[in-house]
Amino acid sequence: MDQQGTLPDNSEWPSGWFAGKRVLVTGGTSGIGAAVSRAFLRGGATVTAAGIAQSEIDILLGEPDFATASFKLLDVRDGVAVNALIAGLPGLDVLVNCAGIIRRGDELDPAVFDQVIDVNLSGTMRCCAAARPLLSRSGAGAIVNLASMLSIFGGGLVPGYAASKGGISQLTKSLAIAYAPDAIRVNAVAPGWIATPLTEPLRADPARANPILARTPLNRWGIPAEVASAVLYLCSPLASFVTGTTLVVDGGYSIS
Asked: Is 174 left (phi over 0), alpha (psi -120 to 50) or beta?
C-alpha cells in the first residue's frame, strides 16, 4: 500500500463481490471515507460519496479512481437533507458512515461537546434510520459505522469524540439486533492512529508522535486503505454471519 492510502494492484477485491452493489459513503470525500469510496469503486461498486465540502469533492474529481463516482454535498446534522439524499437513491446495498469531526481541547466546552455528538453519533443514527428501508429492499444490506480506539478508552482532550465513538459501538450492537429482521447486518470498524489530515498535527510533532509509535506494536501509523479493507471485509460474503461487531484496526495500540 502506498502512503496515499490507495489499494495496490495486487490487493484488489474480487469484483464479483461488489459489482452492481450500490454504496453510500458519508464523509466519503476525505481521509478514511475517501479511501473507503475508492476501495468500493475499485471493487466494481456504484458509489455515492457524500461530503461536507465542495473543495474535497473538487480534489477527487481529478482522480481516475473516482471517474464513475457520484458526489453529493451533505451535512449529517441536517435530518431533512439526509432523508432527501437517501430517498433520492435508486437503491442501496451498503451504507458506510464515515462523517465525523474532532475538536481537541475545545470539547470540554459543553456547546462544542454537543456539536461533536451531533455529527458523529446522531449523524450516524440519522443516516442509518433513513437508509433502513432501501437496505431492507436489497435483501442483504450492510451498514458499517466508523468507531475508534477511543470507543475502548477515554481521551482527556476529546470527551465529545470519545463519547460519540463509544456510543457508535453500542449503537452498532443495538441496530444489529433491530435491523436483523430486515436482513441488514450492522458492524463497525475502530481505527487507531491513521495517517490522515485529521492526525497531521500529531504526526508533525515528534514529542507527540514518538510516544504513539512506541506504544503501537506494529511501530507505524496505519493508512486509510487498511481501514477500508476492514470495511470491505465486513460488507463482503466472507462476513455474511457477522453482525454487531466492532473490528479494531489499530496496529495493536489498544492492547499494549
From this structure: alpha
**Residue entry with cell 447486518:** 185
> Residues with Cβ < 8 Å from 176, sequence gap 6 or more?
185, 186, 187, 243, 244
Three cell numbers, residue 36: 473507503
pLDDT in tens, 150-191: 999 999 999 999 999 999 999 999 999 999 999 999 999 999
CA distance linking residue 208 with residue 161, whole number of Å: 19
Its domain, for residue 32, covers 14-255
Q: From CA 179, how far away is CA 184, in angstroms rounded?
A: 6
Please tell me the total count of domains within the chain: 1
For residue 222, being part of any structural domain is answered with yes
Q: How many CB atoms lie within 10 A of CB 132?
A: 21
9 in any annotated domain? no
**Edge-first strand listing for the sheet containing 70-73:** 70-73, 46-51, 22-26, 94-97, 141-146, 184-191, 246-249
In a domain, 6, yes or no: no
| Confidence bin at 14 (pLDDT 50/70/90) | low
Q: How far apart are CA 126 and CA 123, in angstroms?
A: 5
Residue 56 in grid coordinates: 474535497
Instruction: Give the catalytic positions in this structure.
Output: 161
